[in-house]
Design goal:
The chain is 28% helix and 18% strand. The protein is α/β, with parallel strands linked by helices. A five-stranded mixed beta sheet has the order 5-4-3-8-9. Strands 1-2 form a two-stranded antiparallel sheet. A two-stranded antiparallel ribbon has the order 6-7. Helix 2 packs parallel to helix 4.
Length: 225
């Protein structure tokens, strides 16, 4: 359940910023792209480019490496801000209608959340948890923002925004923002068998998400040999 608490953003150390950009978990992709100053300024990896390699964590706090050179099947990456975000919850709930069809296409579907690994599912609203129960959603923690930086969708959240969220009942303590004030622009990237980005959906307006039927269309296209 979401609770209201104040969060005071500390000074973001320069060393942490450098480690996010130059981390060994980001071997290629947009590792040389700095964290954007706003959602409108992000520079996402483009269609036709090789998808980036990055490391995130499972719900059991184990490292999970996404390496486009080693894909056994096409993959779709869906980045969202965290369980505290109502629009993210709505999107995850909507996508339940096409998850079974996508799985039948033999396409991997990976959700990248800004929440810490131990709270990936518990931070979601109760309704969303019930909606996706039993569907095998693979939600991974990008609390260090490694994937967001590699994909070119990381930006600095305004300090006033970070202050207002808890005042409106959003528990962001479990998210990447509590560590370094960085947010991902919600996005969808489809990666084909060759490790290339075949489709991307990135919208600076966090209220706009890719509809479920369009996601299924994307999955069908990359599933075709």
């Amino acid at each position: 359940m979401l609770t209201s608490r104040r969060f005071v953003l500390g000074v973001f150390p320069a060393a942490l910023l450098v480690s996010l950009i130059c981390s060994g978990s980001i071997q290629y992709g947009h590792a040389d792209t700095p964290i954007a100053e706003s959602a409108e300024d992000v520079q996402p990896v483009a269609v036709g480019e090789t998808a980036p390699r990055f490391t995130v964590q499972t719900v059991d706090e184990q490292n999970f490496e996404f390496d486009p050179r080693k894909l056994e099947r096409p993959a779709i990456l869906i980045s969202f801000r965290g369980g505290w975000c109502p629009y993210c919850n709505l999107h995850l709930s909507e996508l339940r209608h096409v998850i079974p069809q996508i799985e039948e296409l033999d396409v991997d579907l990976l959700f990248l959340s800004g929440d810490r690994s131990e709270l990936l599912y518990d931070s979601l609203s109760q309704e969303t948890q019930e909606d996706i129960d039993g569907l095998g959603y693979t939600i991974l923690s990008d609390a260090n923002a490694h994937a967001a930086v590699a994909l070119g969708i990381a930006f600095r959240a305004p300090e006033r925004y970070l202050t207002l969220l808890p005042e409106h009942g959003a528990d962001i303590e479990a998210s990447s923002m509590s560590r370094h004030g960085v947010l991902p622009v919600p996005a969808v990237f489809a990666v084909d068998r060759q490790g290339k980005v075949a489709y991307s959906f990135v919208n600076a307006n966090y209220k706009v998400r890719l509809p479920a039927d369009e996601l299924l269309d994307v999955a069908e296209k990359i599933a075709t040999p």
